[in-house]
Amino acid sequence: MLLTVLAGCHGAGGSGDAGARSRPSDADGDGIADLEEGAFEGTDTDRDGVPDYLDEDSDGDGYADRVEGTADPDLDGLPNYRDLDSDRDGVPDADEPAEDHDGDGLLDPHDLDDDDDRIPDYEERGDGGEVPDHDGDGEPDHRDPDSDDDTILDGDEGSWRADTDDDGALNRFDPDADGDGFSDAEEAGDDDLWTLPLDTDFDEVPDFLDLDSDDDDLPDADERTRGTHRLLADTDRDGEPDGVEAQVGTDPTDAADRPPFDTPVFPMDRGATPTPRVLRVTLPDDAPSAARVHLVVEAIDPEAAGWLDAGQATPAADPRCAARAVTSVVTADDGYLDAAAGDTLCWRLAPSPNLELDGVPSGPRFFQSRLTVVVEGGAPREGRALFRLPAMEVAIGP
Question: How far apart are CA 53 and CA 26, in angstroms?
Fold first, then answer.
């Protein structure tokens, strides 16, 4: 009989509505064609004795076929109307309430992400044991878009299984994901779950995952102990980044306590040549009235704890500096200037070719160097400066 009816739909001539004749047969009125439901094969998914094409609930999960439809969100090859666990979350559709928890138009049994936090329910439900509720708010993680109650959406806390500080707690369950002593809620930027977390230094690492939120080369953990502001690169607004002051020994919270010279800071990337910077040094009043001044630039060797050549210093013209002739240039790295007490002198600094990066993606952002102003006829005047490097280990070549 079915074969006759289906063949008749395509016959030539006749009368009546041609659209009706071409419409696929749907004996149970569920919106799914009989052929798709296996009418010819006699498919009976739930083995209740009623073939799917006549069964309003083909898989017997309590949800009508017209409600479940033919979508396959879990990509297991079974359309929802034949799939006992349509969202592959480990819970049978029959045991999930007919709710739309996140209001996205999908019933929870057919929704891969009930709380719309961009982490699938099967990941948030765990290993099939007790349904986890990490923040103890009475809402299980798969229905809670903020599982650790830190005002940051779970899906914004890195990859599903990220553990930034390697403390054994995934970021989405960790109240301090980067382990810097500041809670994620403090570093989130606001208490609106649906806004992106704050990224103070615009380095595409949000503050709650960034060990140096303001990119001043002073770790957030140290900012608390030193009393500096973790979101201000220059807490005392004296023109020197907090990290620079911390390393040269001045107080980053006291504007009156500054390094005795303009600290040369070189942004460096592997293979890039940094722009030379000008160092200005004012000779003290007790310097000789007529002197030859020489600048030596060295760097701490982290392996030998010694000093190595770190840069080239050549006299530089600068309108703020004393206009005095160079009396001699000893080497490419050395330059002497005529000077007197109270004069401000300038050198142009650039890293030495001996400075190498070993490519290890960890370690200090700064390495320390020593500047020595040698005044002929007087004691050497020492200061310290910093060359800025990317976050990787530093190796000083031979």
Answer: 7
